[in-house]
Amino acid sequence: MYQYDNIDQTIVNERVTQFRDQTSRYLSGKLTDDEFRPLRLQNGLYIQRHAPMLRIAIPYGLLSSKQLRKLADIADRFDRGYGHFSTRQNLQLNWPKLEETPDILEELSKVEMHAIQTSGNCIRNITTDQFAGVAPDEIIDPRAIAEILRQWSTFHPEFSLLPRKFKIAVSGSKQDRAIVQAHDIGLEFYYDKEQKMAIRVWVGGGLGRTPILGSVIREHLEWEHVLTYCEAIIRVYNLHGRRDNIYKARIKILVKALGVEEFKKQVEAEWLHLKNSPNTINEGELKRVTKFFTQMPYEKLKDQDDAFDEVNKNNKAFASWVKRSVHPHKQKGYRSVTLSLKPHGLAPGDATSDQMRIVAELADQYSFGELRVSHEQNLILADVKLKDIFKLWEKAKAHQLATPNIGLLTDIICCPGGDFCSLANAKSIPIATSIQEAFDDLDYLHDIGELELNISGCMNACGHHHIGHIGVLGVDKDGSEWYQVTIGGKQGNDASLGTVIGPSFAAEEMPGVVKKLIDVYIKQRNPEERFIDTVRRLGVNPFKEHVYA
Ligand code: HEM
Ligand code: SF4
């Protein structure tokens, strides 16, 4: 875990006091709606369909079991006994009472948590890889850099009123699991030809109304300059980003309007003033911040376990779960394990307070009391001993946390849509559950193989539909709910945006549409070919023809 120092704790405590006063002034009529709006948004509080919605920050997706237990207690005491893990590694509460939100923030502050930077036109919660620190393909543990960025951006006076929200993602490994190309700034660490660590800087990516994948603005940045270079980028954006039109305010629009070359020229000119200034990070600073993260007391183990091999051979249900949910680890004898928050028939990404407590217990028993949240809306125990995996599975299974569907069609990314969100054009949770129910045969799911299906209830794209192999977007047609389908989107190093296959469908047609897309794939696939690769090879047409036949 990252452990707060006095400065971190003071900031969070002062924020609670300040927000308590702001809320009470609003409730007593001393502040108008307009005056209160920016104050509440700075503390993650939205006004939503049924109730306010509170978005709690989980910086770089890292949680301790103690924090998760606190979230469970908050969900019971102040909400309806559950929370929603979002695609930006945050937790959303859908039913808090406005007058109780200062109390919620106070409870959070007791476990080094807050809701700062989860909303508003500032640099938002920095996201990264859920396997940070343990992935075998890692170049650098990205969390220390993400933490340095967090410290630098929290309350940054120059960047607290940007033209629009600003999202930064850091990938520290060869496989990009942080979707750097779909962020305002994406930082991709790699080794250069001299085997020195460097950063490829992506800029101007983002989904939403105008989906654009980022462009490389600098191929090789010496990592020491990460802050000053980000500072230069955001300064250019802050100066020239459009404030007259909310739909054109994101940096992606500025980069597109100027062209990457011109944008880069301006950033480099700005950087000349900033390069080597005190915000330059040196080894010492990186080490200092790294020390705030708990070092795990790994045991020296063999990378093989007879009992594990035995049960993996003889227990089919366990083996199919292992295949999807257990991931390689840097340390011999350890694995990372994904607990699925996508049991069939329930809202993707939701966890009940009981489940949160169970996961906290599992983290204590099997993973040094720590866990992570992925942008796919699942929970990860990063440091599980090979020999403990079977016991872990049995316990997780008993609490609906071991659906063996990680990376498969029913591991759906889904925004809250019309059930909760006032911006929605259509519901998205019932679409997810109806598709999950239509693909309830686990053997078939495993046979279909890797497939990402992402659903958003409107063009804001919280459910990342553009980068789903299959993407579903809720649209409004004459006051009724319809769904537009895209295929061929992909996250990761070779990211792509999906292509719309044609006119939209009614809700009840959606499971059938997905089935038809799968039929084409099953018929046309080469051995070992994933759905996305078949789509890339054949193009949209065969799929389109079958679906609209
Ligand atoms: C329930 C209340 C929510 C509201 C009012 C809300 C609001 C918005 C808005 C207005 C945008 C569009 C911004 C733009 O112009 O790019 C957006 C985008 C986004 N939101 Fe939400 N959102 C909500 C829930 C969520 C949830 C549940 C998630 C995650 C599951 C999420 C994560 C995101 C993400 C990832 C984007 C992506 C678009 C981009 O790349 O910028 N939001 N949200
Ligand atoms: S995509 Fe639209 S409907 Fe879904 S959560 Fe975001 S704003 Fe709401």
UniProtKB/TrEMBL annotation:
GO molecular function, one term: oxidoreductase activity
Keyword GTP-binding set for record: no
Record key words, sorted: 4Fe-4S, Heme, Iron, Iron-sulfur, Metal-binding, Oxidoreductase
Signal peptide segment: none
Superkingdom, natural source: Bacteria
Domain Nitrite/Sulfite reductase ferredoxin-like residue range list: 53-110, 327-398
Domain Nitrite/sulphite reductase 4Fe-4S stretches: 119-271, 412-547
Matches recorded under InterPro entries: NIR_SIR_4Fe-4S, NiRdtase/SiRdtase_haem-b_fer, Nit/Sulf_reduc_fer-like_dom_sf, NO2/SO3_Rdtase_4Fe4S_dom, NO2/SO3_Rdtase_4Fe4S_sf
PANTHER family, sorted: FERREDOXIN--NITRITE REDUCTASE, CHLOROPLASTIC
Family to which the UniProt record says this protein belongs: Belongs to the nitrite and sulfite reductase 4Fe-4S domain family.
Name of the protein this chain belongs to: Nitrite/sulfite reductase
Organism for this UniProt entry: Candidatus Methylopumilus rimovensis
Lineage of origin: Bacteria, Pseudomonadati, Pseudomonadota, Betaproteobacteria, Nitrosomonadales
